[in-house]
Task: inverse folding
């Protein structure tokens, strides 16, 4: 049995959620991590790629209201609130890196927390629905979350986020530390959530597999966007192939380095595959 129902998800958005970010800046105290980011998460699945330390998690934390942010962030044309609970009410949910479950609580109790802002009757209705959407979790409803494997816990974390019935779901490194088979199932699930109408914004290091399920992608390095484009073209671009897929590159090659070379060396196909943005 699969972890999720193959014919789609009932909880979630209406297929039209559109996040628009302009001039996003964020960091920790005096340390500025993100500088003037401009991007969009349109209906479908958008992936943010980049190496460790690029600022990917900081980006999602800023959008979720977990750290202060600057710049303009619009969700369906309306300014996104700054407080986390108001952001959840507005229709955005984050599945944080490392899952962040309550290990001494059952699967069912963890799921209920995802719908805590909803009235009790609505929360109970959503719990029934999410256990239909994730049938294997129904079998584990009374199991302590801390006794589950990493992949099983990740499914609980995603299901918990869906309990808030988000219009836009953010996933932070969902494949981190998981077995290859579970990675494939998890990314396929993210694709199905997007197809069912919830806009998905995903941060991921597994470049090849992430681009295979995404509609659009951005490459983030040192707090700045260096490339963007349709996923199917971005995966063929000189920028991404050299920096992340091992094509004619050393381990130290960055997307920014590849972009600079690509301005003079890229073929017409590669040039069309990604929009190169000069680092700030």
Result:
């Amino acid at each position: 049995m699969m972890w999720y129902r193959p014919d789609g998800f009932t909880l979630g958005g209406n297929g039209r959620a559109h996040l628009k970010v302009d001039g996003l800046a964020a960091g920790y105290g005096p340390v500025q991590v993100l500088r003037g980011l401009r991007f969009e998460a349109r209906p479908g699945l958008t992936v943010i790629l980049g190496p460790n330390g690029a600022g990917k998690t900081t980006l999602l934390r800023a959008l979720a209201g977990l750290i202060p942010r600057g710049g303009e962030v619009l969700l369906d044309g309306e300014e996104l609130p700054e407080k986390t609970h108001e952001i959840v009410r507005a229709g955005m949910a984050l599945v944080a890196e490392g899952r962040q479950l309550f290990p001494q609580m059952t699967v069912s109790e963890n799921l209920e927390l995802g719908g805590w802002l909803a009235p009790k009757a609505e929360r109970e209705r959503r719990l029934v629905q999410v256990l239909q959407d994730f049938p294997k979790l129904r079998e584990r409803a009374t199991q302590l979350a801390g006794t589950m494997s990493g992949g099983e816990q990740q499914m609980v974390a995603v299901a918990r986020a869906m309990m808030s019935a988000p219009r836009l779901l953010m996933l932070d490194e969902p494949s981190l530390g998981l077995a290859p088979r579970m990675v494939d199932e998890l990314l396929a699930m993210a694709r199905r959530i997007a197809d069912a109408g919830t806009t998905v914004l995903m941060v991921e290091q597994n470049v090849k597999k992430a681009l295979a399920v995404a509609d659009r992608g951005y490459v983030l390095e040192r707090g700045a966007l260096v490339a963007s484009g349709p996923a199917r073209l971005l995966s063929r671009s000189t920028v991404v192939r050299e920096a992340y897929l091992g094509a004619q590159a050393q381990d130290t090659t960055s997307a920014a380095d590849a972009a600079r070379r690509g301005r003079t060396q890229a073929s017409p196909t590669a040039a069309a595959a990604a929009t190169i943005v000069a680092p700030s």
Remarks:
- The chain has one domain: 19-217.
